[in-house]
Design a protein that fits this description.
539 residues, alpha/beta, Rossmann fold, Serine Threonine Protein Phosphatase 5, Tetratricopeptide repeat, 12 strands, globular
Length: 539
């Protein structure tokens, strides 16, 4: 009909209004009857002349057709129809944007957005954020779903963006959003699953339960999402979810507080997280997730040099082992143990076993893929390292930590142009991102742009809290570009300063090596080994 109308004068065009619904009909005396007919007749008047309107049931059957496009008109309360009906307008060819399959948003790639807080007490923010993370972890355990990690979705907390905008930025086809209200021992959680392409709801549910039922709610949400996206929540995956429940719900609330502060990653917030995880363990000594949380905290304290490395990583190892004694099916605990084995013990074979086991338990755990990439760099499997880092970034596309993991993988595999592009992208998002600025200095040196490298090194000194380590980067540029005397003078001034504090030894060892001062290079190496420094595998 559309083709016919294009080829005839306007007075001869036939502009029908068409409505399509899916359901049972009854043929009687040459006519058709039934609820489906009634619904179709009600939505027909909503169509434009020459246009087509369809219901959610029809949309679900044709949504993946390559040339099909529709826009949601919202929900309508139709006469004599009990439940609101979601209606779409089929876009005519003139309005369609032809898309390829590679541009199509994959429905089974899912982002669970931060739950909005409806409680009057904004101290409950930790509960909403923690519950969001637990829902993400629960969905991540479902085979067949690709679930965006917490770091990336939390950037949309209170963001004034549509579901379509967020979906396109994260490259997901489906979004789970909702709200939570906590009042005493009761909790009300409202969630809806939304198709990004149409911005229409696929499924929605409200839960009004006791706090102790929160794990049943998480499991039910996972089952409903799996059903809506036509994947199966296997019995063993359901068992993994149920194993995470503590005996004491007070311990769970303390655990959520701990995760809330852990996610902020500053020294002060990690100390608060350790305190809350400790309280959770006091309430429930057998709560494996709280022990895993402790392991994650001490791993970060060691990696960021907030504590002496030996102290931090030995505590991390002890807590990870205890978590695994209590529940061997925690991907988080296997990853924490693998990090200790890789960074502190240099037991790379056992570390890889732990990373692989973590990824098998939760293929969507971005942190496991990222740290596995670091291990693969360490043992010289550089192309595998790039693949692992890129996989982590697919799962957590906005994480600056994982973004720098991708830069590092490109750097060691000598893909300098790609590494530079990633550095610039993250510095556009945050001009004071010290790690990206650090890599930028090294990349400019590797590509022979020494003047630019010196400029970037001076900027690194301006924005970094670790002035001595940052200044050593400028000495590195001088040494690498042949300005030996300038490098030596700068280094002599640095060494005379007693405020070096905790610093990554790599840059100091590198500069001394370039200058041909092997005695000082080995002296720094020996001092660092005694202190348990962690950066040697990258030398």
């Amino acid at each position: 009909m559309h083709k016919r109308n294009q080829s005839v004068p306007s007075e001869r065009k036939i502009l029908l209004r068409v409505a399509v619904h899916l359901g049972d009909v009854e043929h009687r005396d040459g006519d058709v009857y039934g609820d489906a007919v009634n619904i179709a007749s009600r939505i027909q008047r909503l169509a434009d002349p020459g246009g087509i309107c369809i219901t959610q049931q029809v949309f679900d059957h044709v949504r993946n057709a390559e040339e099909f496009r529709a826009e949601p008109l919202g929900q309508s309360q139709l006469k004599n129809v009990q439940m609101p009906t979601v209606i779409y307008r089929v876009l005519p060819p003139a309005e369609r944007t032809m898309i390829t399959r590679s541009d199509t948003l994959e429905p089974r790639r899912v982002a669970a957005l931060p739950l909005a807080i409806l409680s009057s007490d904004h101290q409950d923010e930790y509960f909403a954020d923690g519950l969001t993370e637990e829902i993400i972890n629960t969905l991540s355990s479902i085979p067949g779903l690709n679930v965006i990690a917490r770091t990336s979705v939390m950037k949309y907390k209170q963001a004034n963006k549509s579901v379509g905008e967020i979906g396109r930025e994260l490259k997901v086809g489906t979004i789970l959003e909702g709200s939570v209200r906590k009042a005493g021992s009761r909790v009300r959680i409202t969630v809806q699953l939304i198709d990004v392409g149409s911005e229409a709801p696929i499924w929605a549910q409200k839960y009004d339960r006791e706090l102790e039922d929160v794990f049943k709610i998480q499991t039910d949400i996972a089952e409903r999402v799996a059903e809506a996206l036509k994947v199966q929540l296997l019995r063993e995956n359901r068992k993994l979810i149920e194993q995470k429940a503590p005996e004491d719900m007070g311990a769970y609330v303390l655990y959520l507080r701990g995760r809330y502060y852990w996610s902020k990653r500053t020294k002060e917030d990690l100390e608060k997280a350790i305190a809350y995880f400790g309280e959770a363990i006091e309430k429930d000594p057998n709560y494996a997730l709280a022990h895993a949380g402790m392991a994650d905290c001490y791993t970060l304290m060691g990696r960021h040099l907030y504590l002496p490395v030996k102290e931090a990583f030995e505590k991390a190892r002890d807590y990870a082992n205890r978590a695994l004694e209590l529940n061997d099916n925690l991907a988080e605990a296997h990853t924490a143990l693998a990090a200790v084995l890789m960074i502190y013990n240099w037991d790379w074979d056992l570390a890889e076993e732990q990373f692989k086991h973590a990824i098998q338990l939760n293929p969507n755990y971005a942190n496991a893929h990222y740290l596995h990439s670091v291990l693969l760099q360490t043992i010289g499997r550089l192309q595998e390292s790039v693949a692992a880092a890129e996989k982590a970034q697919v799962l957590d596309p906005l994480s600056p930590v994982i973004g720098m993991g991708v830069v590092q993988a490109y750097f060691f595999s000598e893909q300098y142009d790609k590494a530079l592009d990633e550095c610039h992208r993250y510095l556009e998002m945050n001009p004071n991102f010290v790690v990206a600025q650090d890599y930028l200095v090294h990349l400019q040196v590797q590509t022979g742009l020494f003047e630019r490298a010196a400029e970037e090194a001076r900027r690194l000194v301006d924005i970094s809290e670790r002035k001595a380590e940052a200044t050593a980067h400028l000495a590195y540029v001088y040494a690498a570009s042949g300005k030996t005397e300038q490098a030596k003078k700068l280094f002599e001034a640095l060494m005379a300063d007693s405020r070096l504090g905790y610093s990554n030894p790599t840059i100091f060892i590198t500069v001394y090596s370039i200058l041909g001062d092997q005695d000082n290079a080995f002296l720094w190496a020996e001092k660092s080994l005694e202190a348990g420094k962690i950066a040697f595998p990258s030398l």
